[in-house]
Amino acid sequence: MHTTNQITFSDTPACVLNDVFDMPMPGDFVEVTDSMDAQAPTGSFGVILGYKNNSKDEYDICFNPIRAPWGGKVTDTVITAAGGSTYPLVQSGLLKPSSLVMIKEFLTKSPYIHPVKCVVKVWTINLCDYERTDSRKTYIARHAY
Q: pLDDT tens digits, residue range 62-91?
């Protein structure tokens, strides 16, 4: 596996997410291989949202998150993110495996800001294929008031 290190804030050991599963899981990262969207251009990264170790057929993915998506503690179970743009209802079949594994480090949100890093698997996605599925339109139609 190819490993890429991001700039780190400390030498503390990183937690490992999704070290057993051969399918995309919340906490994994997704690299865009093709996109027409300026908010999630080719080469950008997103994080799969949801509950740790809870596989689904569809995921929400937040691209270009700005704070730690896995919370401030290793025991946090919810993967949530802020910043960037979120793509709803991404079919897990659109996420293709890659051999890339990265160490990602973010600052947590307040009240106690501190760095948290995790080793994450990276999947790839072609966002042009996603747009052809009309998943975003379906999501908007479901949530229109």
A: 999 887 777 656 567 788 887 788 888 899
Give the Cα separation of 112 and 120 in Å (integer): 24
Q: What angle do CA 25, 52, 57 make, to 5 degrees?
A: 40
CA distance 4 to 117: 13
Q: Where are the domains of the chain?
A: 2-143
| Cis peptide bond upstream of 111, omega within 30 | yes
Q: Please calculate the CA angle 41-47-50 and round it to the nearest 5 degrees.
A: 140
**Type of residue numbered 75:** T
The answer to whether residues 86 and 79 touch, using CB atoms and an 8 Å cutoff, is no
| Among 116, 39, 125, 105, CA closest to 74 | 116
Helix then strand count (H, E) for the chain reads: 2, 10
| Burial class for 40, CB neighbours closer than 10 Å (0-12, 13-18, 19+) | buried
pTM score of the predicted model:
0.79
Contacts of 137 (CB under 8 A, 6+ apart): none
- Residue pair 98/122 in contact by the 8 Å Cβ criterion: yes
